[in-house]
């Protein structure tokens, strides 16, 4: 049987390339102002975006280095060389003290902006964790505990960010308020959220926030989150309401999305179609429990196989895992594990599920798996090792399972993030 793994990897790589800062950022950068460019970046692509901005302003436009200042706060292991913009590596998904320093420094720099200056904000997925500025009365440890509870709850990312925005001094429009004296605030964002909602990307530090403290409290109740009393008090303090539309902070603010999950999914589809596959495009905004979505997709694969179709089933979006076990993994690996469980008797199947940032769940390390692949070799290994996927699923230990079969996808940091890419080749 033909090895489909190179094709699966080519499909994934095309999706990543379509959203890489080196390829997409320069065309969207605004003209230089008469004063300074204050560049503040956050997220997994922050350092790469900052480096691309440096090349544009310092090399292409020959700006004096003294006119460009800033700080990029990115995930540990996602640093790239920069010349004048400082890079801080911070925690993700669990925020840490380095993220506090990055956020505090960013707020302080924004506050120095004058009418002659451009406040350039570069956002990518992961910015919510990287920029951590707990509101008054909440400690970093308490914010970490709240983050942990949210991530284990199975709540979609938009709901997670609704709570985080109301515990922060930088999220929910507050960075724009800090820099409201700038002549212009321009935010360029790589979207990692379903439906590309601006207020959800990095928790919307420079845009009006449509969510409220009441919304955050309702989510805490819905998911039965056990939070520190100081956190609950903050969520009931009207001073922590996020910045709303019509606020003067947004008078000179512009927001633009420069890469979307849809564009990356389209790039992936182009590769699959070029390889001779009929396409089942399930959309770029899928949400839901990873194992439930995987079961539905496995059924689509069975039906395609039964009808003799040469089909590529592709989807994007961001799935979730309600964590009940003690294992390791992320939604893409759990999705792949369900496929391995349900399709092991079906010949002619190969699949990949991975996060375009290069890390699916994990412990926040640069060498965490991006996801996993399955094909006939996987099923052979499962049989040879007498592996049963069920207990691994019960323990949320997809990483442990695929480490044994040798099917983890390790890419390292990709320096962008437009959610997940999943493909099943039938």
UniProtKB/TrEMBL annotation:
Record InterPro entries: GK-like_C_sf, GK_N_sf, MOFRL, MOFRL_assoc_dom, MOFRL_protein
Transmembrane regions listed in the UniProt entry: none
A Pfam short name: DUF4147
GO molecular function: glycerate kinase activity
Sequence ranges assigned to domain MOFRL in this UniProt record: 312-420
Keywords noted in UniProt: Kinase, Transferase
Entry's Gene Ontology cellular component terms: cytoplasm
Boundaries of every MOFRL-associated domain copy: 8-235
Gene3D superfamilies: Glycerate kinase, MOFRL-like N-terminal domain, MOFRL domain
PANTHER family for the chain: GLYCERATE KINASE
Protein name: Glycerate kinase
Protein species of origin: Rhodopseudomonas palustris (strain ATCC BAA-98 / CGA009)
Lineage summary: Bacteria, Pseudomonadati, Pseudomonadota, Alphaproteobacteria, Hyphomicrobiales
């Amino acid at each position: 049987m033909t090895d489909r793994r190179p094709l699966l990897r080519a499909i994934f790589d095309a999706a990543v390339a379509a959203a890489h800062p080196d390829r997409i950022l320069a065309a969207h950068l605004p003209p230089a102002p008469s004063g300074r460019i204050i560049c503040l970046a956050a997220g997994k692509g922050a350092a790469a975006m900052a480096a691309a901005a440096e090349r544009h302003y310092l090399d292409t436009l020959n700006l004096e280095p003294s006119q460009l200042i800033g700080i990029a706060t990115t995930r540990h292991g996602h640093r790239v060389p920069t010349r004048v913009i400082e890079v801080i590596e911070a925690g993700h998904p669990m925020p840490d003290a380095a993220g506090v320093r990055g956020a505090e420094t960013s707020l302080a720099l924004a506050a120095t902006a004058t009418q002659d200056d451009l406040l350039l904000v570069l956002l990518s997925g992961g910015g919510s964790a990287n920029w951590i500025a707990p509101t008054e009365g909440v400690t970093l440890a308490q914010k970490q505990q709240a983050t942990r509870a949210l991530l284990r709850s199975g709540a979609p990312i938009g709901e997670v960010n609704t709570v985080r925005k109301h515990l922060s001094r930088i999220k929910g429009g507050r960075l724009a308020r800090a820099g409201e004296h700038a002549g212009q605030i321009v935010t360029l964002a790589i979207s990692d959220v379903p439906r590309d909602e601006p207020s959800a990307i990095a928790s919307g530090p420079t845009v009006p926030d449509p969510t409220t403290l009441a919304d955050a409290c309702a989510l805490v109740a819905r998911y039965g989150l056990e939070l520190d009393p100081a956190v609950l008090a903050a969520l009931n303090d009207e001073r922590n309401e996020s910045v709303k539309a019509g606020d003067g902070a947004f008078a000179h603010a512009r927001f633009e999305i420069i890469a979307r999950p849809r564009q990356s999914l389209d790039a992936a589809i182009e590769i699959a179609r070029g390889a001779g596959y009929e396409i089942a495009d399930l959309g770029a905004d899928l949400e839901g429990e990873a194992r439930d979505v995987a079961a539905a997709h496995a059924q689509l694969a069975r039906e395609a196989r039964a009808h003799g179709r040469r089909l590529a089933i592709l989807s994007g979006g961001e799935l979730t895992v309600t964590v009940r076990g003690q294992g390791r993994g992320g939604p893409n690996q759990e999705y792949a594990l369900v496929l391995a469980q349900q399709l092991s008797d079906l010949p002619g199947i190969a699949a990949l599920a991975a996060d375009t940032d290069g890390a699916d769940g994990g412990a926040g390390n640069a060498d965490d798996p991006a996801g996993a692949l399955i094909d006939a070799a996987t099923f052979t290994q499962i049989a040879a090792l007498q592996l049963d996927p069920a207990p691994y699923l019960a323990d949320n230990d997809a990483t442990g399972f695929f480490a044994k079969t040798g099917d983890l996808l390790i890419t390292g940091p990709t320096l962008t993030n437009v959610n997940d890419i999943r493909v099943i080749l039938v």
